[in-house]
Amino acid sequence: MWYIFAMRLMFVADGRSPITLNWLRHFTENGHQVFLASTFDCPPPPGLTGYRLIPVAFSGAKKASASDRSRRGIWGAPALGLRTTLRQWLGPLTLAASAPALRAFQREIQPDLIHALRIPYEGMLAAEAAEGIPLAVSVWGNDFTLHAPATPLMSHFTRKTLRRADALLADCARDLRLARGWGLAAEKPRLVVPGNGGIRREVFFPPAAPPAEALILNPRGFRAYVRNDSFFRAIPLVLRELPQAKFRCVGMADEARAREWAQRLKIEAALELLPALTPSQMAAAFRAAPLMVSPSTHDGTPNTLLEAMACGCLPVAGDLESIREWIKPGENGLLVNPADPQALAQAILRALRDEPLRRRAAAQNLALVAAKGDYEENMRRVEEFYAQCASPSFTQEKK
After folding, report:
1. 89, 248, 277, 336: which could join 282 in a potential S-S bond, CB 3.0 to 4.6 Å?
2. What is the 3-state secondary structure (H, E, C) of the chain?
C-alpha cells in the first residue's frame, strides 16, 4: 500500500473526451493539483489548477459543422477512414512544432507526474516534450493494433514513446504483451484498468425486471473500426425471422449515411436513430434492451461493453482477443466475425431467443464488473500507481 500524498499532475489529453473528464474528476475531487494540456479546444473542465490548449496532428483545425456531417451520406464512413489515414501519415510531422509549448507548460508548473491518456498523438507529444518528469502513458484498444503499424512514422513514434515512458496503463492485458513488442522495457511499472477508469455502478445497474421487448442496441456510433455496414446488413436478416425486432443506434441521429442504409435496406420502420446520450440516458437505454451489438475490428475494453454488462444487457461483439478477457462465448455473451452480417444476424437471433443464456449472463456479468470494472476501486489503484511512479525513490532509481 502506497501512502497517497497530494500530487501535482499534468494530463495530456483530449479535454473534450468523456474519458478524460472521468480521470480529471477523480483527482480534482481527491485533493490533487490537476493541470490539463488539451490537444483539442474546449472549455477548461471544472476543478483544474491550470489549463493550456496545445494542438497536435491537426487537432486545432476547424471541425465540420453538424450540417456538414449530415451531408456526408453513405460515403461518410470512407471519409472518416481517410481522415484517420491522413493523420497517421502526416500527424507525426507536427510533433516537433507542438512540443515546445508543452515543454514550456511543464517547466511552468513542475508536475510530479505527466500522464498522456493515449499514444497517438498525446503520448507521442509528451514523449517529445517531457524533461526529467516521470511519464505515464495510457494505451487504448486500437493504439497498437490499428494506429502503430499504420505508417512508418506511426511505428517510429510509438516505439519512441514507449522507450521514453516510465510507466504504462492499458485497458486490456493483451496490450501489455503487445507493448513489449513495441519497445516497453520489462522492468517498467504497468497497470491494467479499463480506459474509462471503470463503471460508476450507481449509474449503470440492472433493471428491476428483464426487458420484454425484442430490442437491439448499437451504442458505438460511427467509427472507422466499427463495421456498421455489417450491422445494417444484418437487420433485414433478423427481421425475416423476427419481424417484431427493433433496433436503436446511439449517436446516429444526424448521420445521413445511417438513414441511407435504412432506406436502401427498407428497414426504416424497425430502426431508431438516437443522438449522443448522457451517461444516465445511456444506462436507461441499456436497461431497456436485452442485448447490445458491437461489431468492431479493433478494441481493448470498450466502455460500452462494461456498461452493457453492468446493466444486464447481453453483449454481442466482435471476436477479438481483448474482448475475450471479459466474454466467454456462450456463457456471458456472444462473439462473431464483425465482417459477417449473416453471423451477426444469427447471434442476435440466438440471443433474443435464449432467455436462460441472457439470465445467466446478466448475473455473471454483474459480478464480473463489480470485481474488475468498478470505477472507484480502479481509480484507487491508479492513484497508488501514480504515487509509486511520482515517489522520490522511483525518480532516484530512474537516474
Report:
1. 277
2. CCCCCCCEEEEEECCCCHHHHHHHHHHHHCCCEEEEEECCCCCCCCCCCEEEECCCCCCCCCCCCHHHHHCCHHHHHHHHHHHHHHHHHHHHHHHHHHHHHHHHHHHHHCCCEEEECCHHHHHHHHHHHCCCCCEEEEECCCHHHHHCCCCHHHHHHHHHHHHHCCEEEECCHHHHHHHHHCCCCCCCCEEECCCCCCECCCCCCCCCCCCCCCEEEECCCCCCCECHHHHHHHHHHHHHHCCCCEEEECCCCCCHHHHHHHHHHCCHHHEEECCCCCHHHHHHHHHHCCEEEECECCCCCCHHHHHHHHCCCEEEEECCCCHHHCCCECCCEEEECCCCHHHHHHHHHHHHHCHHHHHHHHHHHHHHHHHHCEHHHHHHHHHHHHHHHHCHHHHHHHC
